[in-house]
Amino acid sequence: MAKAKPKKEPLAKPLVEPYDPQKPYHLEFFFQNAPFYDHMLRIWLVAHSQMGNVTHRAIVTNLELQAIKDGDPLPTNPTLQIHPLEATGLMDKLWAMGIRPSDQASPGQLKAMQDHLGDLRKIIFKQLGLS
Length: 131
Prior knowledge:
Layout: E1 25-33, E2 41-51, E3 54-59, H1 84-96, H2 107-127
Antiparallel strand pairs: 1-2, 2-3
């Protein structure tokens, strides 16, 4: 008599549950530079929530675009809503990858400016006889 095959358990329980404001919840961004020919930044967004001793994680997989007309009001639900601490984490990760705001000096530019100011300070002090 042949042995019965054991039933396969599902790989994982669904991770996405309705948002409960009582649960600790946060979003985490993951980044990767795309291959050089792509000139794009790859982004993953993972939601974490805690329920007792169980951590639930879900990844955003698709964003849907809806056509709008000029002058249409924005929908009441935003595309994304994040806590200021999550936004700080987002900026920190982008900064670590070398991405800077367009009006922000790079670390090399900042060092050059500091060196230049130091040189100007020495010249002025010498001219004033303060060195």
